[in-house]
Design brief:
Elements lengths: L1 E2 H8 L3 H11 L5 E2 L5 E3 L1 H15 L4 H20 L6 H4 L5 H7 L2 H12 L4 H21 L5 H22 L7 E5 L8 H12 L3 E6 L4 H7 L5 E7 L6 H14 L4 E5 L11 E2 L4 H12 L1
Parallel strand pairs: 4-5, 4-6, 6-7, 7-8
Antiparallel strand pairs: 1-3, 2-3
Helix pairs in contact: 3-4, 6-9, 7-9, 8-10, 9-10, 10-13
């Protein structure tokens, strides 16, 4: 436990500021000793540190408080759910295949409800959804699932991810990141997952979607506030177009960080940041780089 004097010193603000943040915004609400003195536990100090960090970054105090409370609520929800999704415990990775074969849209909705209620968004996506979509793609290539069935599942997943993206909320003062696929590339579900995770760590993504022409990329990064570009190379044939976009970004905005994900990110230009293959870790890495 911290007294108000020690909490203020740990956070780097005055005792009067701590009282004001508590009174006006409910940030860092302390416990009380038997004598009535304020006592701050570790969770309260972390909340105050988040508030201080946002204010130092230039957020208006009221907006910083709202963002701090949003992050606390998200973290509490994540803590309440299992943090690691186990396919062995919660279902197999082939669960999407029979739904595609039978065109079972209600069954798909029920399955997604069950999965996303079972663990954090990042864990479900990394440990179940993306691998399961890979199994579905393999079944389609083998002729075990029709084009229509594969599309039904993909569209259902896209709708669910779009809801999650909107629910994550936009951080109005977070680092702006343009996220999309290069011209001709269309497999964007993984990138939509990443954009959602980016919102959840306090970034402000501008999700452009798939098949974005190079000239549109240039318009998207023209605002001075854009600090990073994230592309993906899900297929080897996407690499040439990705190279063209990356070169154009580097020529137009050399100050912008260029990051690449997807199965073939290792073949991207050497100066690009490789995000790896887990969207939760990738979003955290990008947030750290832009802090």
């Amino acid at each position: 436990m911290f007294t108000i004097k020690h909490a203020a010193r740990a956070v780097g603000v005055s005792e009067a500021t701590l009282r004001a943040w508590e009174r006006r915004y409910g940030i860092g609400s302390p416990l009380r000793s038997q004598a009535g003195y304020r006592l701050y536990d570790d969770a309260a100090v972390r909340a105050l540190e988040t508030m201080k960090h946002l204010v130092d970054e230039g957020w208006p105090v009221k907006s910083a408080a709202e963002e701090t409370l949003r992050r606390l609520a998200r973290d509490e929800a994540d803590d309440a759910a299992p943090q690691h999704f186990s396919p062995e415990e919660y279902g197999d990775l082939d669960a999407l295949v029979p739904l595609a074969r039978s065109y079972d849209a209600p069954g798909l909705d029920d399955l997604l409800d069950e999965r996303f209620a079972s663990a954090s968004f990042e864990s479900v996506v990394d440990d179940w959804l993306l691998p399961a979509l890979g199994r579905l793609g393999a079944a389609w290539e083998a002729g075990e699932v029709s084009v229509a069935g594969e599309h039904l599942v993909s569209h259902g997943v896209t709708r669910r991810l779009s809801v999650a993206y909107e629910a994550a909320g936009d951080a109005p003062f977070g680092a702006q990141v343009a996220i999309g696929l290069p011209p001709g590339a269309r497999h964007d579900l993984g990138l939509l997952c990443f954009a959602t995770a980016a919102r959840r760590v306090g970034l402000a993504p501008r999700y452009l979607g798939n098949d974005v022409p190079t000239e549109d990329w240039m318009r998207a990064i023209s605002p001075a506030g854009v600090r990073a570009v994230v592309l993906s190379a899900p297929l080897r044939e996407d690499l040439e177009a990705l190279q063209a976009v990356v070169d154009a970004v580097r020529l137009t905005r050399p100050d912008v960080l260029v990051a690449v994900g997807g199965a073939h990110q290792g073949d991207a230009p050497a100066y690009c940041l490789r995000l790896g293959h887990r969207i939760g870790d990738a979003a955290q890495e990008l947030a750290v780089r832009l802090t």
